[in-house]
Backbone:
């Protein structure tokens, strides 16, 4: 069992660099230079709108200029962008860097990363300073090594990614026509450690991309067609998404482990894994070396492959047609095996069905015990519920405990099976696995490689039908062979989708192992080994004990916000934590009723768990001026200027009446909509992130009878200093995904033509 855990865990650890020295030099790229960039970029917060964000942009620009290479062209692309889907907008600056190729008609290989960080959290060391730093150094080193590449090279450092890919979308609308981009290598992070997983992104098919990734001989490739298909089904977007919609293919590299640091104050240099940065570097440099000389048209394909990686070995890939042939062959072989089994003198239908019970019992208990284990731990450490990313501190220790627990349940059930019964178990559980994988592959063709357990167990079935003893000796070897490529799935699934995926992942593990259950030796008599179950339980208790307290390195996420309504002269304090009030508990002694909280959420659109009314006073309303509307044939055109008070970070507008817009200009940049944009009452019209000028002018084209009834919210950071509240203890941090520590002033503004 230890060996099984080691293979699963080892497969994950071996899949990407370990013990990366800061002095690493990979193909002439210095890790020290990369780290220096990350350090400089993360010295100050750099979300869009923060004064120090500009410093980051200038740092990148200066660094490119220092190359002193007349062939390198740097273009500062400054614009305003409004994302009509999430209605966020800001002034932005993208950096477009170009280097000519030998062939003037050839398209460009473009490295891409974003230099803005998430607001209200950390300094974005992993997301995406590491990506920017690697892209800069790889680009720089490459042109020093190969001054005359065949293809053109580009480096696009985008802005406003965290607000909804604003920079990338603005680039596409305003700049793409001047460029011919063949392929993109995008560097991203959704955590602070783990392997940088490759997601091939294409509108048509992934075959060209995966074949290039293989031909480039990227060391330590981590990718699977299942990852790519699950990712495609999730609502996640990256800067690659709008390019993909334009038919431009991309290699999207992202590390996603230690998800709890994502968009948090803990996304800093201290939490960033050097191994992940090294994995970014190795893959990016190898890919660029290869792609710079390739005909990029070859990356375009209409087909997708089935592929998976063998930890630290390489990528195995084959076509979907081959996958189909494998499935048909395996099914036919299994049917033959089934017939032979049923006609065998020692076996029969009854002995086949008897295998259902142990399989069902194992599956049931593995799922239930793992579910209870997580639920128990979340109850014992309630603060973990405030980690909104879904993967708690010590998540990996928990996964290890769950693997051990599942293996013990497996052994306890299967050790009651005699060798003759086990032969039937192989055939039955093989059939169950085949059925499940065939159904899954219908929905996700990329899951096709999950047939591996069946491929390995088939010969085992034939052999043990006639020589059960031989089968018994072969089973553990096959099991380990199977876990080599598939074992990491048990870690990757909860790392990618959250710790609550582990009961499902463990269920998959035991179903996958069941066709090879012959290795479990039969034991009659009472179960004296049941005490083994206590091992993972004790281990889990130790996890709880170790992690029960939050530390500055692994802090408790907490939130607090203040809202003042100018019209009603009411003030509120609220937070969105499971534990009431965090360190400011004293302020939250009289929570308002549930009804009041619901009304509040309805009115002001704020997530909260506890609401109290407050006697603190702070108001920073904006001044709003509208020009007399201009009547046009189809609509009226209204120009509204909102002047926020200095120090305001974000202006939000919610429309309290349904309204339809034909076009909207934000900061002078007009956005025409293909279809008129209709917003229902209560919907957000705009979330404007102020960069320099706290005055924003909107020009709206709307129907003649539209009356404006807006709720305008002015947000500013610095709640604690505003009211002289106690500083947050150093083992707590502002909660990710929730705009915390804000002073919000709410006002209503109405306007009509008559
Ligand atoms: Zn990012």
Residues:
């Amino acid at each position: 069992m230890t060996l099984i855990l080691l293979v699963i865990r080892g497969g994950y650890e071996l899949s990407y660099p370990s013990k990366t020295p800061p002095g690493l030099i990979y193909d002439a790229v210095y890790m020290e230079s990369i780290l220096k960039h990350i350090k400089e970029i993360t010295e100050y917060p750099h979300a869009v709108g923060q004064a120090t964000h500009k410093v980051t942009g200038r740092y990148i620009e200066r660094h490119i200029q220092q190359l002193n290479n007349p062939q390198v062209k740097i273009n500062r692309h400054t614009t305003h962008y409004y994302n009509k889907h999430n209605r966020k907008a800001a002034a932005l600056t993208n950096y477009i860097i170009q280097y000519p190729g030998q062939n003037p008609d050839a398209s460009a290989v473009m490295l891409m990363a974003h230099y803005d960080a998430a607001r209200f959290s950390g300094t974005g060391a992993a997301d995406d300073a590491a990506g920017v730093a690697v892209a800069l150094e790889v680009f720089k080193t490459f042109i020093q090594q190969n001054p005359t590449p065949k293809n053109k090279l580009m480096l696009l450092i985008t802005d406003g990614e965290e607000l909804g890919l604003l920079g990338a979308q603005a680039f596409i609308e305003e700049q793409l026509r001047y460029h011919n981009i063949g392929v993109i290598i995008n560097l991203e992070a959704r955590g602070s450690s783990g392997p940088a997983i490759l997601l091939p992104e294409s509108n048509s098919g992934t075959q060209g991309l995966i074949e290039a990734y293989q031909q480039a001989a990227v060391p330590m490739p981590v990718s699977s067609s299942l990852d790519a298909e699950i990712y495609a089904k999730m609502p996640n977007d990256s800067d690659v998404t709008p390019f993909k919609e334009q038919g431009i293919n991309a290699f999207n590299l992202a590390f996603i482990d230690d998800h709890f640091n994502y968009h948090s104050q803990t996304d800093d240099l201290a939490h960033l894994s050097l191994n992940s940065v090294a994995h970014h570097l190795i893959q990016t440099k190898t890919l660029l070396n290869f792609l710079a000389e390739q005909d990029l048209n070859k990356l375009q394909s209409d087909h997708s492959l089935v592929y998976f990686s063998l930890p630290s070995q390489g990528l195995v890939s084959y076509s979907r047609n081959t996958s189909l042939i494998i499935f048909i062959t395996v099914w036919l072989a299994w049917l033959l095996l089934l017939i032979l089994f049923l006609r065998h003198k020692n076996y029969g239908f009854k002995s086949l069905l008897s295998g259902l019970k142990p399989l069902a019992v194992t599956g049931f208990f593995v799922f239930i015990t793992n579910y209870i284990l997580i639920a128990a731990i979340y109850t014992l450490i309630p603060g973990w519920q405030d980690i909104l990313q879904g993967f708690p501190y010590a998540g990996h220790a928990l996964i290890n405990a769950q693997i051990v627990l599942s293996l013990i349940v497996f052994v306890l059930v299967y050790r009651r099976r005699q060798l003759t019964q086990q032969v039937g178990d192989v055939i039955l559980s093989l059939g169950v696995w085949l059925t499940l994988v065939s159904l899954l592959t219908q929905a996700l063709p990329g899951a096709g490689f999950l047939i591996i357990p069946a491929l390995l167990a088939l010969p085992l079935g034939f052999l043990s039908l006639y020589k059960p003893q031989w089968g018994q000796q072969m089973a553990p070897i096959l099991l380990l062979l199977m876990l080599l490529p598939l074992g990491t799935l048990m870690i990757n699934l909860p790392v990618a989708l959250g710790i609550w995926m582990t009961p499902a992942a463990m269920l998959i593990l035991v179903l996958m192992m069941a066709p090879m259950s012959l290795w479990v030796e039969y034991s009659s008599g009472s179960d004296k080994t049941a005490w083994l179950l206590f091992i993972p339980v004790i281990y889990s208790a130790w996890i709880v004990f170790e992690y029960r307290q939050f530390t500055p390195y692994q802090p408790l996420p907490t939130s607090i916000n203040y809202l003042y309504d100018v019209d009603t002269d009411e003030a509120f304090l609220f937070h969105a934590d499971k534990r009431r009030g965090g360190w400011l508990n004293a302020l939250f002694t009289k929570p308002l009723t549930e009804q009041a909280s619901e009304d509040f959420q309805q009115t002001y659109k704020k997530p909260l768990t506890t609401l109290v009314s407050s006697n603190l006073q702070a108001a920073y309303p904006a001044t709003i001026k509208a020009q007399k509307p201009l009547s046009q044939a189809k609509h009226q055109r209204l120009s509204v200027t909102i002047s926020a008070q200095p120090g305001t970070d974000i202006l939000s507008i919610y429309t309290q009446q349904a309204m339809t817009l034909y076009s909207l200009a934000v900061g002078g940049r007009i956005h025409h909509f293909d279809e008129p944009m209709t917003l229902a009452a209560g919907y957000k019209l705009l979330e404007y992130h102020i960069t320099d000028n706290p005055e924003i002018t909107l020009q709206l084209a709307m129907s003649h009878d539209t009356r404006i009834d807006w709720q305008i919210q002015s947000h500013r950071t610095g709640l604690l200093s505003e009211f002289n509240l106690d500083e947050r203890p150093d083992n707590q941090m502002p909660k990710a995904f929730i705009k915390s520590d804000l002073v919000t002033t709410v006002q209503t503004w109405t306007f009509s033509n008559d």
